[in-house]
Amino acid sequence: MLYIYAEREGIVLPGKSDDVFPFLSLNYFGATAGLFFLLGITAAAYSSVDSSLTALTTSFCIDFLKIDPGNKEEKKKRMGVHIVFSLLMIFVVVLFRELNNSSVISSLFKAVGYTYGPLLGLFTFGLTTKYQVREKYLPWVCLLSPVISYVVNCYSEQLLFGYKFGFEILLFNGLLCYLGLLLVRDKHLTRRA
Q: Quick one: the chain helix, strand, coil %, rounded to 5?
């Protein structure tokens, strides 16, 4: 609807689709719409970032640093980790904005196609088989499946008779991980039902 409005009013829109709504709300919809837009986008971004930072901090402190969550003396260490992750998040957001040449949601889905593929493969493998895998090979399978997916995606038009992957790279990535897990399964051990 924003594009229809802009076309009808003869408004030249910015190049990035992510900038269309802020551009229109701050320049053409009046002060009230601009204020509500800023409040809404701030609230949405804050809640998402806050949840991510809390999860990253907690996971890192408990899983990697082995900090006891009930220990009050290690609170400074947890706060330091939280600050480091906050700075890292700011850096990633700024870097993403500078390097990105398409809409954020499109780029996010592309990134998810590579990062969530191994998760999809692991989840599906766990649901559909009772095999155990040889753990020393598990990280390699989960690292190689996105790398192979990326290479296949880059050369898919030559390799697959003109076919170009889109967001379905996630499925291909998950399938590669699943097949890799089948290759490194322990043929003598199965999980209990």
A: 75, 5, 20
72-83 pLDDT, tens digit per residue, is: 888 888 889 999
Q: 62: which residues sit within 8 A by CB, 6+ positions away? A: 69
Using CA atoms, how far apart are residues 156 and 45, in angstroms rounded to an integer? 35
* Mean confidence (pLDDT) of the chain: 85
d(CA 161, CA 105): 28
In the block, tokens 């402190």 appear at 61
**157 vs 72: CA distance, rounded Å:** 57
Residue 48 has pLDDT above 80, yes or no: no
Please check whether residue 172 is in contact with residue 149, taking contact to mean a CB–CB distance below 8 angstroms. yes
